[in-house]
Amino acid sequence: MYKFDIGNITCYILFSIFLGGALGGLLFWLVFVPINLILESVLHISLNIDIAFLTKSLMFLGVLFIAVSTFNITFKEETQPLVNTNNNKISSNAFEIITKPQKHTQTTQVYERNQELKNICINRAGFQCEIDNNHKSFISSKQHNYVEAHHIIPLSFQDKFTVNLDTLENLISLCPVCHKAIHQGNREEKLKVLKQIYNIRKPFNISFDDLLKLYLSN
Predict the structure, then answer these.
(1) pLDDT tens string 59-76
(2) How far is Cα 151 from Cα 113, in angstroms, rounded to an integer?
(3) How far, in Å, CA of 189 to CA of 216, rounded?
(4) Angle between helices 187-200 and 176-184 (to 10 degrees)
(5) What is the pTM of this model?
């Protein structure tokens, strides 16, 4: 969609007419008249230049130039790069598909998780967030409030423990927000959520300080 400022275009056209007339007069008297006099005196040839035609031609070219320039400026303003709420410019090229993303093979070692234990944990909590059952997310494909099972002592620290960490004792049902907060939140958010979890369940009698160290080092 292109926007045109009629006021600006009118001013440009009037300016072009004025400029065309002025240039037409200058060209006629400073260039064409002297050339014509020289040609008549030397070669006996007359250019028969019409100042009115010359002026009108320059006016037309000026108006055409201004119209094209205005269109280009307006088009560029309409297609400026997007700006996000943080005032960081995002190039419009970011939305153009140039080449397909490359595939990379990654090898990651993870501990297997018992999906049945996760299901038991969620069912045991009645498909509620155990921190606060008022935390609602959305209805899942299984027609229940969507929650996620979380290992209180992260399974990534299994090597530090002699007992199996993938047990019901170490699982708690959390809403997606609480689950993300415990993994992705800042120190204050992690501390707040972890305290609430620890008040509900203390797996393997681990101390709160030791549990907190695991999360802050992860």
Answers:
(1) 666 666 666 666 555 545
(2) 10
(3) 11
(4) 120
(5) 0.55
